[in-house]
């Protein structure tokens, strides 16, 4: 490592393992259940009563909840609170992807000047801030800047350090959503309303539906000293240049390999889990991922709004705890070239408020007593995927997914679903008139070993796993595999909930108009089953086949963002009361500006790195493509100037995409060619070897 710029060795960190005693403190810093009841009971209230949200409209109850929260805070050494909200366009640029103003929970006695505890219901339930200083797409301006915060009763209050966090929604003076969270709630309401209608028609009375998700978070952990010798990682989250190391992931040696007990990664991950456990975030799984220095956490599932809140805090904890262990955490979708990038698989399911799992055939059939209910639900969802695949593609158009989708590590930009042959055969038979109940099949085989229990007879599901599908069905859920690792998944789930609500509405409307539910579903499935693809999504023949089928394929993320304001989608979101047309136009502008701004930062960083590192290294060593490197600078500078000169967000986005995916890739090749020939002692940037192999061996402090 010293040869590559003279950085100090990474400090040795003590290994820590999650303590058994931690189980006793799980959720201690989450104001929920028995933790909340201990303090609410002293105010004559309960957690069950607080869950209804009525306290937000009753000042007396609000004061009681505030008093309970204050006492809980004091008992945990906290004395600060904030309304914690989720501005738009935060992924990849805003630490924690949240907004907050931290206020002390005290006031000053006007006579004595002494501080006294002060936290009332009015402080708890509402807040106000400057809406114009956050990305808003023209919904706010400096002279019309009001932004209003309202506590979200569905997502529990939590504590970290000395601060109480109040999950909140953020809207403008006119009620326009300025955040990621508000549309999620609107979409869950639409899903619940339409699902309740449909299930009643299918034989089941319910109070409503909930959307549940589980989010798998992939990350990279790299040596922090090497990170500080990469301006691109510090400023953009990815390496915009860098020659491949002699070793990558080609030996499949990293995936699920043992976590190094002598290295900082395991110690950091254990501490991350500990912090999350105390906040009631159930990070159950940790393991190595496919690429060197790549890892994953996975929690248990929960309601969509709560899981999104928790995932944002997980990402913040990961970044902050990593630094304590001499590491840098990279959340970007593609921090390194030619090894796998990172995703955030969004496992989405639907349940009734009474607990029946709508996407599980046995659970739904039991609840409804109607064997046709499950194929009707599935046919509706298949129709939603086919009709609104453009919105599904839009929802994953994070800047980092430019480098990941379709790269044999994530599904392509063609929107389809995998149901498996067993399910597909059943739905085909249903569409042809069969009324049989669906009972998922199983397969039994032997390991070739007798007398050792299930090694002689082992049972698995009838369907294999298809990791190439963007939206495979998994028995009781759909897994949206194409979601980017940095994303706030609010838009993803807003889209899934909304298009499903619309499909449920279509079926319910037609049943109420006198049609048979089974006949409606058969028609829908027959028309839209083109969106079902059970084959290899990485096969070169699939794009051609998809084109023949006429299903949604939008290769450009910039183009995908612009479907938000199509007539079809304005109508969809308007009818379901998710977004108004001005909100859609604003959100589209925000997403395009986010993309363009990301690319501009990358281009300017590349200019600096060429000027300050690559060219000086070539000159110092006397080898390398000096003339070619010098010629790249005016090209980059002109491209950035052209973006600035463009008049619309759409034009800027189109130019930025060309700069990023064509011009900068060509220039990267020139920079990497220089790295290949410049002697190590003259190359000042940390190499892929420095960055990617700190935890592959028992002693992580060995130089590569």
Tags for this model:
704 residues; alpha+beta; 6-stranded mixed beta sheet; 23 helices; 17 strands; 43% helix; 13% strand; globular; disordered N terminus
Write the layout of secondary structure elements.
Elements: H1 22-25, H2 33-40, H3 47-51, H4 59-75, E1 80-84, E2 103-104, E3 106-108, E4 115-117, H5 121-125, E5 126-130, E6 146-151, E7 158-160, E8 163-172, H6 181-201, E9 209-223, H7 224-227, H8 231-236, H9 264-278, E10 283-288, E11 294-299, E12 302-303, H10 304-324, E13 327-330, E14 344-352, H11 361-368, H12 373-387, H13 389-395, H14 420-431, E15 442-445, E16 458-461, E17 478-480, H15 490-512, H16 517-528, H17 542-549, H18 557-561, H19 567-575, H20 581-621, H21 626-645, H22 649-677, H23 688-692
Parallel strand pairs: 1-8
Antiparallel strand pairs: 1-2, 3-4, 5-6, 6-8, 7-8, 9-11, 9-12, 9-13, 9-14, 10-11, 14-17, 15-16
Helix pairs in contact: 6-15, 9-10, 12-15, 12-16, 14-16, 20-21, 20-22, 21-22
